[in-house]
Design a protein that fits this description.
This protein is of the alpha/beta class. The chain contains 17 helices and 12 strands.
Length: about 500
Amino acid sequence: MSHGSYTTFGGIPYAAPPTGPLRWRAPVPAATWHGVRDATTAAQRCVQMPTPGAGAVLGSEDCLYLNVTMPTPKPAGQKRPVLVWMHGGAFLGGSGSDYSTEQLAVRGDTVVVTVNYRLGIFGYFGHPELGSAPPFGLADQQAALRWVRANAERFGGDPGSVTLFGESAGALSICAHLTSPTAVGLFQRAVLQSGSCLMSFPRGALGPGIPAYEPFASQRDVQTAGAEAARQLGCTAGGGDEVLACLRGQSTDRLATAQLMQSFNRPSFGNTLLPVAPDQALASGRFHRVPIIQGTNHDEMRMFVGLSLAAFPIRTENDYRARVVDAFGLAAPAVEAQYPAGHYPTPALAWAAVLTDRSLTCTTLAVGRAIAAHAPGLPLYGYEFSDPDAPVLTGLPANPGFPYGAAHGFEMPFLFSSFPTERPLTDAQRALSDRMVDYWTNFAHTGNPNTPDAPLWPVLRLSSPLAQSVQSLAPGPGGIHPVDAHSAHHCSFWDRLPQ
């Protein structure tokens, strides 16, 4: 569909519908079509975890489609770099069509592709009878990248200049592809926003008693969970073929329950796509040598804490102390001494700061050190999105005395112009948005985010833990400048603390 300065193509199939006998199989090529295909609207999103109180299941299992945005006109002879976006959503929600990419395409002179991939039990199920099947959602993403390699030139794109970028679960996906032997040659650069190979949450981060979270799971653990799910679904009789036929015969609605979806939202390792856990692969130097931008937001975990405050309020220092003890056990006094509640406007903000530093900022910097240790000459850039007044994303609850600041996902409206927020960007924020788009797209063009008219973004130097400057991204004069995130987020403390 033409929009003047850009053209969009929605709902392009990159793999066959993973339904019926193709449920829980690696993606296979989509059927060819003859004549003109309608590409004026995006396809349905992949089946999502149902929201509380919702009726029908949202989305469809027939969902392996992507969307392309390209500037108009298509260049004669010259090929543009391609940006491929993997959405976030905890491997449980989201869709490629949620993101408006025209600013990246037009201002950045790039071709932008957004991708749907299987979610929850449909994307990350395992069972002994499936053997060492790959995580299907990640296999979908690699199939989409192969489609891009085969078809980018049709849209004026360069199949040899692909930048993979994503946020949250999308960034975790990119971590997996960086360490996946089956992703060789599928992308030439990577941008990881608020998610890394070392990210994890301690016990109680999302609420008292909620178990610790690691983003990847062993094949054995996923198979064990799958065998239990099969028992719950009544699929145990007969041999292996009968069990799988029973499981594949279950209705979408019967599988898309909150309990089953949440039981399968961690990609498995111990298969051809991920032979070992990504953090172990990274530590041993088994990752693709491509230029990387990685970063976090200044107040990442305020989003998660804000979502849980109604159910689990943190009103007093005793409430805060109980959360710290739940998360860190014997190390709790050391954590509380490093983060005294009295040093923060409220105990809830103190708790959010603890989790931001421990789970996202410092783990992301540690990834940078691991990369630098094995590939010291690799172009590596770090950032911290730091706008304290970023627009609040639509749907987040208002908590008096608990500003969200630069929380998880709050950089999205600065890259994707129509991302839903409670208010539009200010003039200063729009200027920051333009600058961020320039940085991201120049990186896609050259492997270096810097442009002649922008504040210098230095390469991340990791020779010393005391000199780990990342680019602070905030609006207003002087808002873009290098900062020592390692010191500002107490990373020396977390690096010493047993995990």
